[in-house]
Amino acid sequence: MGKTPASARCGLNKQAPVIPFAVLVSGNGTNLQALLDAERSGRLGGARVALVISDRSGAFALERAKQAGKEALLIEPDKTLPKDERRRDLSDRILVAVQKTQAEFIVLAGFLSILQGPILKNYEGRIINIHPSLLPKFGGPGMYGEGVHRAVLEAGEATSGCTVHIVDQGTDTGPILLQRTVPVLPGDTPDSLAERIHHEEHRAIVDGVLELIRRLGLGTQGALPSESGTTGTGAAGQPVKDAEGTEAPIIHQPTITNQRK
Ligand code: GRF
Asked: pTM value?
């Protein structure tokens, strides 16, 4: 379904083609909320959250989805299955649900399960994830939640931030779309650093969706600009590409001077 032809999408008008997408969540859902707010304000252009799926019961993100009038599904891992089979089974059930909505792409917004199998092929280059560090640093298996920020502090990093990247077969390894950086400040705890980064995530996830739409050529050209002040965009707003034609990530630098070192 990720390869849905443009003809399968309905358009409100020429400026704002409707672009349905799915959001996968596991927790509070503040990043989902940022997307819902952006959709309501018109910032997402024609992009619409068509479906929200949680792999955990009790995830407040499901409430946020329902409050916004969105279809919200709970699809839990089958704990009777061995790990690999469990991941595959969950991924396959998610794929079926997502395909029903004709979603063009999938956003992992604080989704803790690992996707495996056909969903990665069906939606190749069309699944993005937000991670609370400056990947490739502090990513990979086991790097989530407070553990990420604790590791950043223990390593004495001067800067941290968040990354929106395309999901591939690995964990936190896919091509980076954009990053937002924050300083690590004297006296920071994992909680205080997490809070500073979380604030930036809410901008990054919206910009990440806009950037994906631009790269996939789904939006009306010029109608869905990412934020200015980036290092990924060259003269006349043209993306910067390396020798292989890969686009450089957009990197937002901190505006606060680092005082830690
Ligand atoms: C965020 O820190 C995100 O980077 C990580 O999970 C957290 C989700 O937060 N992948 P929320 O549920 O969106 O508030």
From this structure: 0.86
